[in-house]
Amino acid sequence: MKIIEVLKLEAKEQKVILNGWVRSFRANRFIALNDGSTIESIQCVVDFEKYDEEFLKQINTGTAVSIEGTLVPSMGKGQKLEVTVSDIKIVGLADPDKYPIQPKKHSMEFLREKAHLRVRTSTFSAIMRVRSFLAQSVHQFFQQKGFFYVNAPIITTNDAEGVGEMFNVSTLKVGDKDFSKDFFGEKTYLTVSGQLEAETYALGLGEVYTFGPTFRAENSNTSRHLAEFWMIEPEMAFYTLQNNMDLAEEFLKFLLKNTLENCRKDLEFLNDYHLKEEKQKPERDRNKLSLLERIEFVINNGFKKISYTEAFEILKNCNPNKKKKFTYPIDKWGVDLQSEHERYLVEKHFECPVTLYDYPKEIKAFYMRLNDDDKTVAAMDVLFPGIGEIIGGSQREERLDVLENRMNEMDIDKKQLWWYLELRRFGSVPHSGFGLGFERLVQFTTGMSNIRDVIPYPRTPQNASF
């Protein structure tokens, strides 16, 4: 029986069998046992006089055990139930002199070096349970709304984002550039986005979404970037930009509300963890809202929708902290907004989540629908407290002539994307979509400051361990 199930039982004597790992073993009597199903460990009380001393010495932090016993009301503080042990079997030993995850505070850097074991800590087990539930909630939301799940290819010949930071996929020997002899007969890459392929299916199935791994060869070793990450990309036929923005807000609120209701204990643990971390910071650097308050802030507030131009005027004329202006100046219409600007709009100016729309065309991708002013495109970004942009999307350009002009302006290879252009020749319709970086969402929901700590095995420049 899983510990999460046992803890829901009534406090009456009944037989249970538990399997798990020892978190601690005190006074040769009290085992704190955890099996990963919940943040809570259950206390198992051992009658040490029944066991050989050498046997008890093998029960250390990290040891895997199977315990039979009786569930009884606990006499200790902070727990309702405990198990009186009748039999204990050691399943897997853990040498206390070598097992690195001892019951003490470890730095995040140390735990990244032990990524194969860090999930046995309370912090990382909580993060990964929340991550798992968020992923389930993604599918739940779209399935309830009648969307179809589409698996976009991982290997591709196109650069959907136009960024050029892609990983090559090749079986050629080093130095051989004749891609006609390569496995696929042409130059191929790991995908940076499944969006273009999702569009083809939206223009046949109506409403679809992808949820899979994407890759970017960006040499950026920051707390916000990964080389391998997961993207959620819905695409919808007959959706305007307004429809797109409304769906993004509904989607995010559903995910957060569902997770808050179903992962409450994990989130309360992480909330307490971050409150302790915040106390170590100078007061000026502390978050004003706790983790739970930030989640509830999004759930309970309508998203403010304003144009890029309106946001530019607000930022140009503001003085963020009276003495010091922004690190990145806002002095010319058309500049790309940075995280500090986005967070100012959310946290200081509007004090609610913000959706920006109608961005300058020069800073957005070729496939975004050109507005009538010929200066902006029907793009949108959703901004959250503490993180800035969490969703980016747009209404897609459905007009063939306009799309071809934009591709010419941005030097996009039309021959390579002939199939994408054909969508505009055969039954083209207005359509929209957005992308949500799943790790960014997990970061926001768990409060972790480094994106490497919300994915099981982070892939970053010079690091592909495990």
Task: Summarize the structure in words.
It is built from 13 helices and 16 strands. With 466 residues, it is of the alpha+beta class. The model has no long low-confidence stretch (mean pLDDT 94). A hairpin with a 7-residue loop joins strand 4 (64-73) and strand 5 (81-92). The protein has two domains: 3-100, Nucleic acid-binding proteins (OB fold (Dihydrolipoamide Acetyltransferase, E2P)), CATH 2.40.50.140; 119-453, Bira Bifunctional Protein, Domain 2 (BirA Bifunctional Protein, domain 2), CATH 3.30.930. The strands form three sheets. It has an eight-stranded mixed β-sheet, sandwiched between helices. The longest helix is centred in the first third of the chain and has 23 residues, at 122-144. It has helices spanning 3-6, 53-57, 108-113, 122-144, 195-205, 241-262, 264-279, 291-300, 308-317, 339-350, 400-409, 418-422, 438-446; strands spanning 14-26, 30-34, 42-45, 64-73, 81-92, 148-149, 155-156, 168-169, 188-190, 207-215, 228-237, 304-307, 354-360, 376-384, 388-396, 431-437. The relative contact order is 0.11.
